Amino acid sequence: MKFLGIGSALPKKVVSNDDLAQVMDTSDEWIRSRTGIGTRHIAVEETTTSMSVEAAGKALKDAGVSAEELDLIIAATVSPDYIFPTLACEVQSALGAVNATAFDLGAGCSGFLFALATADAYLRTGRFKKALVIGAETLSKMVDWEDRSTCVLFGDGAGAAVISAEGNGLLSMVQGSDGAGGMALSCKNRPVNNIYHKLGPQQYSFTQMNGREVYKFAVQTVPKAVSEALEKAQVPIEEVKYFLLHQANIRIIESVAKRLHQPMEKFPTNLEKCGNVSAASVPILLDDVLKQGLLQKGDKVVLAGFGAGLTWGSCVIEWQA
Ligand code: ACO
């Protein structure tokens, strides 16, 4: 496969650490020093669907591909507007992508990598030719705004990529899961509640995180996954122009860079402005890097995601667009 076009969308409202410090017991110093986050975009009028449609429209324009040409849409999200219909079907409808098969998948912050891997596998069957892959989240509705240890970390946004079956831009893909560690980062869905098992009035559940466990998982797993992907692609690490990692936390990214013996200059970031946008963070970062003109044809780039599940994914791509 190869990438034909990329797009992203962020909510208009920007919330700084100082803004948060006015409404909860936190500070710019605490958030910035522990996470690297300075601001995040928070949805007010936007929804997961509206941001996905905007990002997808930009990706299609960038690719020079019409919505009707798409035969596959995969959306990665843990925060869709509806449990059903899926986000992918809503995007299909809004775009008029009438020839596409559309479905969602959930793999937390690894979602975009998992959706890309799935789309690539579908394209390889020969049954599909052009796919739209989306990572989109409105995590601001999934966090407890009374819990300062999690709500300051996340932001909202969407990123999308149009990919084609023609081309050999994906040099390797590595994925993994460790369900046994899953409760380190969780958000409950509705509990069993019916006439045979009646519960009282239910409250929504919110994101819960054991930050230290997640940190340990990330710094141990991501360097391994990246090294495996490079080995599989037979690409020496020195040939990698950029490592585009899920934007969870600057300390995780610094630790991964150190463990891979690579300079931080090779790890572009946007978490300072966007916070942690879960499944949307890798495609938004890829869009940022492209907009800055930092990628040329033939450049080798590593993408890596990690998060709830626990899950991880890493791939090596050669930029061919
Ligand atoms: N502002 C001020 N103080 C805070 C805040 C806040 N927003 N949040 C927590 N604190 C306080 C705590 O109450 C605690 O106070 P206490 O010592 O008086 O009890 C103190 O700060 C330390 O809290 P810890 O949770 O131990 O802070 P830690 O140094 O571990 O940092 C962090 C938390 C940044 C989340 C860290 O664990 C981390 O980097 N984890 C990695 C996981 C991560 O980045 N997750 C993002 C989402 S998951 C993903 O995308 C894969």
Count of helical segments?
10
Mean pLDDT: 96
Structural class: alpha/beta
Please mark out the parts with pLDDT under 50 across 5 or more consecutive residues, or reply none: none
Tell me what portion of residues adopts beta-strand conformation.
Answer: 15-25%
Helix content: 25-40%
How many strands in all? 13
Radius of gyration: 19 Å
Q: Ions, cofactors, ligands: which are bound? A: acetyl coenzyme *A
Task: Give a quick account of the main beta sheet: strands, pairing sense, barrel closure.
Answer: 5 strands, mixed
General description of the model:
With 321 residues, the protein is α/β, with parallel strands linked by helices. The chain has 10 helices and 13 strands. The strands form 4 sheets. It has a 5-stranded mixed β-sheet with strand order 1-7-6-4-5, with helices on both faces. A 4-stranded mixed β-sheet has the order 8-13-12-11, with helices on both faces. The radius of gyration is 19 Å and the shape is globular. The model has no long low-confidence stretch (mean pLDDT 96). The structure holds acetyl coenzyme *A (ACO). Acetyl coenzyme *A binds at residues 26, 30-31, 34-35, 109, 148-149, 152-153, 185, 209, 211-212, 214-215, 248-249, 251, 276, 306-307.
